[in-house]
Amino acid sequence: DAMVIQNPRYQVTQFGKPVTLSCSQTLNHNVMYWYQQKSSQAPKLLFHYYDKDFNNEADTPDNFQSRRPNTSFCFLDIRSPGLGDAAMYLCATSRDHVYEQYFGPGTRLTVT
Amino acid sequence: GENVEQHPSTLSVQEGDSAVIKCTYSDSASNYFPWYKQELGKRPQLIIDIRSNVGEKKDQRIAVTLNKTAKHFSLHITETQPEDSAVYFCAPRAGGGADGLTFGKGTHLIIQP
Question: What pLDDT does B54 receive?
Fold first, then answer.
């Protein structure tokens, strides 16, 4: 009965090698979010999709991109990962008139 | 944007005692006040939330109180148990339901046996 699924759960990539993280949901929620959580820190919002509309946070580096091909799926692309991009990446969903956000289990990214 | 401060950063209490964590925010338009619990290596989970038209909400051993005038809200956990050990985040939000969350820095709650 998984609601928000993230794949893979663990990802190792090389410095500068593009990587894509995946999120899917069975809740039919129209809003999907990506957060970055570094070790011992709070989650930080990178961007979100409201339906097909992309909303970027002002301080999200250009190195981070996102795609949402349909309601159920959302991808996080890191074009040239640096060592500082090693973190847990959390996907979350919500319905626009309901405040609660549902988080996926996260993908832990290691950059070597 | 929202400026969120959370205190204390670490809280150690004896099992069975109460714990209180406070969150202060800056945006007077904030209208939604959730608390998330995150165990080590796991996802954040909503444990309780409150809307701006309510001053207090309780769910078994946990409660949230809101003081909109002073722009702070607090998480109260009574009769603490070992499974309450985790990091707790507040994430006050203004605006519509689609906005992302701005989390406080978190409070590491340690329950001493």
Answer: 80
